[in-house]
Amino acid sequence: MTGKRVLHALAAASLLGVAGCAGTAPSPGSEPAGETASSAAPEAPASAEPTEAAPAASDQTYEDGEFTQVGSYVSPGGTEEIGVTLTLEKDVVTAVTTEPMPSNPTAKLYQERFSGGIQEEIVGKKLDELKVDKVAGSSLTSGGFAEATDLIKSEAKL
Fold it and tell me: Which residues, in sequence order, are CB contacts of 143 under 8 Å at separation 6+?
């Protein structure tokens, strides 16, 4: 029992010490010691809902809209091209379409595969963050896509 009494006494002394450090509340109309009305920090008014700051227009790097360019790349069968249309909103790709422009059946196959998989790779990403290496088994077509994307960046730059 004695151990418990010692613990209770220590806990009570600890609480009294903390309460003693808190000081006393000033009476209404009086200023705390060392503070005057001019040095007190004003309180911010309470808000029912937090407000979000809207992004500044200067934060946007590219125009909103739809942009189309053609990119080329070299395949084993020769130079190939692919058309790319990107829709941008606040620097984010909201839609993409590609137009295969193959010169041989193998290029046609790979460009069609690429076209079938590119949307899920880039829609929702920022234009400056696009990095496409291989889409749906097509790796060379991404070179033409990257070239067209670079041209779109130049065209859409604010």
Answer: 71, 73, 74
Q: What CATH class has 59-156?
A: alpha beta
Domain definitions of the chain by residue range: 59-156
Tell me the sheet residues that pair with 75. Answer: 78
Phi first, then psi, for residue 67 (nearest 5°) are -130, 135
Mind listing the pLDDT tens digit for each residue in 119-137?
999 999 999 999 999 999 9
Residue pLDDT, tens place only, 1-42: 444 444 444 444 444 444 444 444 444 554 444 444 444 444
Question: What pTM was estimated for this model as a whole?
Answer: 0.63
| Element holding 77 (H helix, E strand) | none
* CA–CA separation, 139 and 46 (whole Å): 56
